[in-house]
Amino acid sequence: MSRRVLLSWSSGKDSAWTLKVLREDPEVEVVGLLTTVNTTHSRVAMHSTRQAILEAQARAVGLPLHIIELPWPCTNEVYERAMRGAIEDGLRKGATHVAFGDLFLEDIRAYRVKQLAGSGLAPLFPIWHEPTGPLARRMVDAGVEAVLTCVDPKKLPGSFVGRRFDHALLDELPEGVDPCGENGEFHTCVLAGPMFRERLSASVGEIVERDGFCFADLVPGHGIGEHREEHPCVS
After folding, report:
1. What percentage of the chain exceeds 70 in pLDDT?
2. Mind listing the pLDDT tens digit for each residue in 24-61?
3. Which of 55, 131, 159, 193 could cross-link 144 (Cys pair, CB 3.0–4.6 Å)?
4. Predicted confidence band at 75 (pLDDT cuts at 50, 70, 90)?
5. Which letter does DSSP use for residue 221 in this model?
6. How many CB atoms lie within 10 A of CB 80?
7. What b/e readout covers 187-216, taking b as 16+ CB neighbours within 10 angstroms?
């Protein structure tokens, strides 16, 4: 029996790569993307991806986008209520599983499994325990184009925000920083790759420091250009 899968879509490279892996399985049909959006700012939480780019990504991969609207600030209770609504909607539409792009954080995986327990939807973790060093290189070699849209300066210098996720960046990551940012060092937004039917155009706009994180605003439009103006996240 074919598994009808909803993919938890962050707009970043790990969820995009998960889509590629799922589509290589003949027993899987990916039926849609699930994304939480901060309705105050119309952006994907933490990744800070504009909703316009998120919607363009969904068109590029050819899948319906199911937006889970969240207020800001958002309590865990509100988040879980919104997720239950999304799960119920997925069941009505015939989904059987929800897939996640998690790599090795056991507490996050356990939380997702708990969320779905008894819901009628089973969790999938298609890239779980992939070694992140080789995986990051494989993504770049396969044509994944992504930009670092959020950096935690406590874990990675803020100067990395707004940069392309490429071999040069991977070569420069400080020792101890996960190449896929799996420990929260950074988050990305994907603009191209083997899972896309067309490349998205965007440029790096304003860079700001907010709530202890460095964010780069990815603006729909021209091709990727790294930010050259004064960088507020460089100490």
Report:
1. 95
2. 999 999 999 999 998 888 899 878 899 999 999 999 99
3. 193
4. confident
5. S
6. 11
7. bbbbbbbebbeeebebbbbebeeeeebbbb
Average pLDDT for 152-175: 97
Q: What is the DSSP string of 143-190?
A: T-EEEEEEE-TTTS-GGGTT-B-SHHHHHHPPTT--TT-TTSSEEEEE
Using alpha carbons, list the distances in angstroms from residue 226 to 146, 159, 184, 215, 223. 12, 11, 22, 13, 10
State both tokens at 73. 């600030």
**107 Cβ partners below 8 Å, 6+ apart?**
none
The three-class DSSP label of residue 64 is coil
In the structure encoding, which two tokens stand for residue 137, read together? 């290189």
Q: How far is CA 184 from CA 22, 148, 188, 224, in A?
A: 24, 12, 11, 23
Rounded Cα distance between 202 and 219, Å, is 5
User: Which domains are seen in the chain, by residue range?
Assistant: 3-124 (3.40.50.620), 141-220 (no CATH)
Distance CA 162, CA 164 (A): 7
